[in-house]
Protein 1
Amino acid sequence: GEHMPDKQAFVGELVRVTAPGGRIIVVTWCHRELKPEEASLSLKEQRLLKRINDAYFLPDWCAGSRYEELLRAQGLQDVRKADWSQFVAPFWPAVLRSALRPRNLLRMLTAGSSTILKGAIAGLWMLRGFQKGH
């Protein structure tokens, strides 16, 4: 879902191609849920997500509850959501450690310096977002 700019169209297509009685499982990057008194993410959080999205060529993210709303609006029942952040959080430090291995550094150098720098910085931003609960 994080690669789809139109979340409603994305969910609609999932529903369209799913057989009657089938299951839809969406595993995607989402930003944190807003508190009842919040209209949006903080400007700092928005800037961080924009940097990540620009680095990975992604459209805007949404909260997991938005997918729940869209699925229910399609008439689906038994819609559930789970936050897997605690299981995903170790991924980003592992990616950074892997990138620093000599054989991987050599491979990355052949990809071009701007690609390496952009990927490394974006990985750090993702790590920061997970650590701060964005």
Protein 2
Amino acid sequence: KPFWLTPFRVKLQLETRYSIQAVAMQPFHVALALFVLATSASVAESFGLRAGWTMENKQCKATCQRFGMKSLGPNFSGISDPTACCSKCDAVYKPAPALVQMHTMELASPQPGMDNKTCKVTCQRFGMSSLGPFFKGITNPTDCCAKCDELYKA
């Protein structure tokens, strides 16, 4: 064997090996491309870049925590702190009342369908705020159970 053909054989073997790997890597590249497309779509959706979407308080605050103040518009220009940005979100996008707050505002009488036992179980789980305006200010489960006995006769 001539010594000058040895590098050629090594080069030929390397090219053959890499071409086989390139064929084997094609499904990986397709999967990677699909993953990048899916991820970019979900990122765009989380920042509110889809058509027909309106910003809400929660999404605004999430964008603030990701330091995306510039993407929130001219109301947020000059803000670089996420805490100040979240305060601005509360001013620009009024937060919706929580379900518990809406529930307690609507109740003027004891809850229909509630009995003494269910009321006491809710008290023991520190759910006084969900029981309505009659339980406002009660923080102790014992006091709450006494109020249950008063409202829902056993």
Protein 3
Amino acid sequence: RPRRRRDSQRNIRATGRVPRRWEPIDALEIDEPEQLLGKCWKFKLKITKAAIKIRAQSCYVSYLFPNESGDLERYTTDVCETATMTPSFEYEMVHTIPCVSQGFLDFVRAARELWPSRCTLVVRSGERAWAQPS
């Protein structure tokens, strides 16, 4: 009976976590998200490290988030070039929406939590590289 080759891409898809933290800057006290309409929204996103189940030769985190004009922009951490299972990024980015729109509120609601949608952990190990949604 021939041995099945393991599908490494499938096995790697659920191999890591990217803890992140949002810190408010000039936070407004609100009861409902709609109270933010027309106001400035400013938070700092921190990504300190990731935890993956393989030893990566290099990796980085990339995500899409609205910029100040409301267009989605790709943000990327520096590449961690250390061969490790716990890559360190020490990434901080202040995100500012000068005038919150209904589109931004819809974006945040669609994300189901305050985290950039379509976040990807990109890992390289040996000759293989892959991207994992986080």
